[in-house]
Amino acid sequence: MTVDVTLFAALMSTTEPALPAADWMRLYLPFAWTVVLAGALVALPLRWTLGVQRVLCGLLALAAVLPGAFSPVYWLGLAFQAPSLTSVLVGLWCLRGVVTGGHIGLAGGDAKANGLWRWALPFALLGYGLLFDTLALLPWQMYAWGFSPALLLALLTLALMPWSLKQHTGVAVWAVPAALLLFAATRLPTGNVWDALMDPLLWILLQAMLIRLAYWHVRRRG
To answer: What does the alpha-carbon distance between residue 107 and residue 45 come to, in Å, rounded to a whole number?
Structure first.
């Protein structure tokens, strides 16, 4: 019984979080911002040639490794810290078009194909919950739960449910469980599972998508 209580306490504990290694964090920051920025660049509805896309992505990668304040990563890190693992995986998914030569979009009709609309409402609510927690408007510490191993197990179970139902199509279905598994292995970017799933830029993108979907439904019914 003592072992069970100890195990339960360890799973629920938020006082001794496992943090990412400092060397991994230094490597992750420029890589993550390069992938996110390059992925957003190629996802824009612009008719750039494949060669232009590759050149721009290469320039972003070079800019990311510039020292100190000369790099945009320095300023982005000050403003937004590090992108979530989810954003990095979505960025990599977008960048597959640079390799294959096809255009990958995140809005409009592509939203149905890539499945990102599935995230819009739950991730928007999650973002507001974390925002209210930051402003100390909640009676509990929601962000602190992100250091608990039990929450990671619960979220991974929920994320794998579409796979058990054989609804594993679109980036939205595989990116979340992949992000959680990467987080379990690396603890990136901060050791908190909420930061692995969500970041401010992704939150804004999904809210914009939610507004667009709501407008589309209202217009369709009208």
So the answer is: 9
Query: Residue 204, Cβ neighbours under 10 Å: how many?
Result: 12
| Residue-by-residue pLDDT tens, the chain, 222 positions | 444 545 445 555 666 678 899 899 889 999 999 999 998 888 777 777 888 888 988 999 999 989 888 999 899 988 888 999 999 998 998 888 777 665 555 543 454 545 667 778 888 899 999 999 999 999 989 999 999 999 999 999 988 887 766 555 567 778 899 999 999 999 999 999 999 999 998 998 888 888 888 888 788 876
Q: How far apart are CA 122 and CA 115, in angstroms?
A: 13
Global pTM value: 0.84
Rg (CA), the chain: 19
Would you give the end-to-end CA distance of the chain in angstroms? Answer: 62
